[in-house]
Amino acid sequence: MERRKTKTINVGGIKIGSRHPVCIQSMTKTDTRNTKKTIAEIRRLEKTGCELVRIAVKDAAAAKAIKTIKRKIGIPIVADIHFDYRLAIESIKNGADKIRVNPGNISKLTDLKAIIKRAKSRKIPIRIGLNSGSLYSTGPGQVRHLTGGRFGKTGAKADLFVGIALGYIKMFERNGFRDIIISLKSSDVRETVESYRRLAAVCDYPFHLGVTAAGPYDTGIIKSSMGIGALLLDGIGDTIRVSLTADPVEEVIAAKKILQALKMRMFGPDLISCPTCGRSQVDLARIVKDLELRLAACHSPLAAKSYKSIAVMGCEVNGPGEAREADIGIAFGRNSGILFKKGKIIKKVNAREAVKELIKCVGLRH
Hints:
Elements: E1 9-11, E2 14-16, E3 23-27, H1 35-48, E4 52-57, H2 60-72, E5 77-81, H3 85-93, E6 98-101, H4 109-122, E7 126-131, H5 140-147, H6 157-174, E8 180-185, H7 189-200, E9 208-209, H8 217-233, E10 239-240, H9 248-261, E11 270-273, H10 284-297, E12 309-313, H11 319-322, E13 328-332, E14 336-341, E15 344-350, H12 354-362
Parallel strand pairs: 3-4, 3-10, 4-5, 5-6, 6-7, 7-8, 9-10, 11-12, 12-13
Antiparallel strand pairs: 1-2, 13-14, 14-15
């Protein structure tokens, strides 16, 4: 799919925009003031593949903690600011690489101008981060002021999202500030997708994608995959965060899987496996899980770039045929399997040694 053309925004050395890979981010779940725990969590996120991390700044102590945290990590920090504009200024002072402001609870123009002035002097970008939970907190008078009364009349939340976002964008631009990233997150997948699509048609700032408050792991994965995936397939989106009520490491893993499923970025071989049926005579679920764990534990890249997909199929009848496009794979019989490359059978292997044989053939080491 062709990416929507956007500006490029520099966040602590990470380039966000259509000319760069879609960036993966997450948010810490620790108390930012506890720098030891926050640093430990960020390091786990970094190891998993997180490229940008957001932290909650709920008071001055949390803002000051940024200075200590930054010395111990290797990825840029986004300071998440609500209610008090002074926390944004303090975060910038202590080294934040980006500020997220929520129009739902920071809407006084004097406060926003103070943030803009400090961010501009330090060349720090700002994310205008709307979400459905605080959308109406902006207040009807402020909404009318920001939207010129043109949006929100029908009650459609997508209209309101777009109207408020455009109002803030224009206000930032009038103050000479264009280092902007936008997000329009709803917990409703349809509202999220529709809002981003509408705004994409009228501005060229990079978008941070996500479905807010998506829920526990299973539900959150489904909502996020549908919402983020639909937009990425439209060519919309420049950085993503999968919001889960779970370990933030799971958010990064899910984001990587979404991008890989769309072939937008590759983080390792694509694992193809059949759902099994009555013909299967091996415990395919166990075998696939074993292979998945071994692949995840491999720290070296593929020995040959040609092995981008690995298939594990439950029977010899359909295996090589259904997985013909896989670079390498195995299809099982009763106690053995046939190893194949690009649909061509190479040799027969013992079922117990199948995973080991695949890892050996692909050329990965632990």
